[in-house]
Amino acid sequence: MPLGIERINARRHQPNSRIVFIKPLEGPDKAFAQDFLERIAAICHPVMKANHLSIMSLEEYEPNPEFVGRNFNAGEVIQLVLKAPFTGHWLSFRSVQMVMMHELAHCMQMNHSGAFWKVRNQFAGELRDLWGRGYTGDGFWSRGKTLLSGQYEATTGLEEVKPRSLCGGTFRSSRRKRKRKAGDNKPKTLTYAERQQRRIARRFGTNGVTLGDDADTRVKLEDGKKPKGKPRVAGSARGRELRAAAALARFGQQKEEQIKKEEEQDSG
To answer: Mean per-residue pLDDT for 41-66?
Structure first.
């Protein structure tokens, strides 16, 4: 499957190879809701296959006056409302199928833009073609009848329910990074040399003096000879010699200061 997940322990054949899990709500009507969702999954299989769509979980959502379907993470979870909120009547089978086309379109276009409605109308047209051919699914679902089929005759259309919104929205999990809009301040990409300077500044501060930068000190370290350029990199032999000379010079200066201090103490 495109999702990279496939059920291998299913107790029976699934109505749609591109939907991994089908989950009705718990309750006395669970068997009918399971059958309802499986029939929805079966009839939308050609649409999903032709458009390379996959769903991790198709779920029933509790009746409410706000919406009849919603989509999470571009098809990771699609939730459909199967009952009217106040009467408890089952919604029209075909109207829920059309809501499913709406939510499948969100797998390709997350917002309700013009591009989304173009995709949604395409899926709706493909579904109407399936209705015209009398298609209900493959295998067991191609019969179009189940033990619960009689209950589909007493259903309620969306025009009676009148939800405030057909779609409850599309959602992305917070782990995904938001794409930067045009004009946003993009972080500056630092060069290797700039990153090195930042590391040195964090560790040693910014007020240090590079060994050999002072001209007089360089002449003194070179035994009175004026060098033409700066010392080579720290790992070179010349760099090691300069560091050793600087250490000896500091040591000699400290020794002179100590002798001078001792003489002052003796004279005092």
So the answer is: 93
